[in-house]
Amino acid sequence: MGSIETAPAGAAELSYEKFHNVVASGLRGSEKVHHGVNPSDKSPLWDVPIATERDLDEAVEVARKAFESWSKTSWAERQEILGKMRDELTKHIPDMARLLSLEGGKPIQFATGEVMASVGTLDYHSKAPSPGEEILEDGDDLKLTLRYVPLGVAGAICPWNFPLVLAMGKISAALLTGNTIIIKPSPFTPYSVLKFAEMVQQYLPHGVLQALNGDDKLGPMMTEHPGIDKISFTGSTATGKRVMVAAAKTLKRVTLELGGNSACIICPDVDVAKVAPLVALGAFYNSGQLCVASKRLFVHESIYQEMLEELMKVVKGWKVGGTAEEGCMLGPVQNEMQYNIVKGFFEDCAVNGYEFAIGGKAVGNESGFVIQPAIINNPPSHSRIVKEEPFGPIVPMMPWSTEEELIPRVNDTRTGLGGSVYCADIERANRIASQIEAGTVWINSFERPLTQAFFAGHKESGLGGELGRHGLLSYMNPQVIHLYKTDVGKVAKL
Predict the structure, then answer these.
(1) Structural domain includes residue 363
(2) Total count of domains within the chain
(3) Active site annotation includes 58
(4) Among 12, 169, 181, 468, which one is least packed by beta carbons within 10 Å?
């Protein structure tokens, strides 16, 4: 018994309790299914099909065929379609926010914010200018022209922490630049991505955007598939390295956005009461499940105790719980695997006798994966909580005295994704920021990537980057035309 075909995608009223893979022009089921888990109470969510190797092969074949015509459409035509996709998603904001809240464990206001950010991502790309052509040289004998052409079929492997908006960055850029794309959501959070792919099929030629949910076999099959020309991966550094190895077999283009251990630096001249809420958001937003979250707090010794007390006051004022509870600021950790990883950091800190300024009890809700946020007061530099990324609501805070001793501590990590600096003296803030070995640094703001800003990691935080006009180039190949102005025409005969 093979795959199960259902109605053409986008042809009927959307159901938010039935989910399918999107292959070619149809919604497809499978003999094997699995389901996500509501992290607030561990209840099972809806069944989703597990794509087979045959599904992937067919999706690639259809995508390659679709590329032939899609790549020849104009930039303006593709922008118009992205605008229609934006408008379609806008119609479904409440329902998509509900999906994100249930699958991701986000309080509804933040789930709505992610859908709005996804709308904004589509909107940005619907208006982004083409990279066009650049004349490198135009002399009497030679004209050199640099242009950019689409790669072909892109494969996008997406994470579970921000499933929709991170998928949208990949989808928008790939389609705008003339590529077709096969998107694989995380099996922990497949629902919003699959539903988006379904709802926008009505605006796209068959095979331009396809979506496949799978088990742990599908990602490796995509990275090794000879018919896929590029892999865009967002996830852990360890998995990113495996993606790079697999992609090397066919010399695929790869973009890797990986883990980080970002430092937040707070200078002595700030207004502590103003800055503390921003620092708290940077550390604990989405329960710390943000790749660029402030994962190490460095506070100047002259305001250290004052800042610690103010942070404790802010965090204690937040409600933490399941998404069904009203007024929550922080929801649960998204899945049991990550929950156990984060619990391990709590246990390591407790065993080693580190001081919990706030928190200390990892489990806040036995029925779900809720964890009360914790601040570890001045743990040693060699401690696990300082050296590793917990990806959860626990953060170390440490004092510093001079820039000379601070910067080496900040950069003492194999990763370099982000960082932040709070300082009233903008000249000093820029001086410190310029010494942080990371792809993005925020000054006087918590970490919030913007669609119009290129986003890339240094060191083991990634390879290449996405978003902004520079991110579009990661979905294109450069091509240089050498035009020699030699008369090669035939001599006319009298």
Answers:
(1) yes
(2) 2
(3) no
(4) 12
